[in-house]
Specification:
Length: 70
Amino acid sequence: MASPDTEATTEKDDEAKGGTDDIFDDIFAEEETEDSERLKAFADLEQLTMTEIAAETEAVLEELKIRQGG
């Protein structure tokens, strides 16, 4: 059986190691959340842009039909 001092040291080492792991986990989780939010915002912007392009294309085609008398 280990001495009480050895057990206390082991517990402190585990806490210190776990604490560091928790900090890194939190940092990476925050980065993943930020990345996910950025990707979602980019996808939303891309969709909006494609919608605007489609609407502009339709308007140009309609104007072309009008000019050609059709």
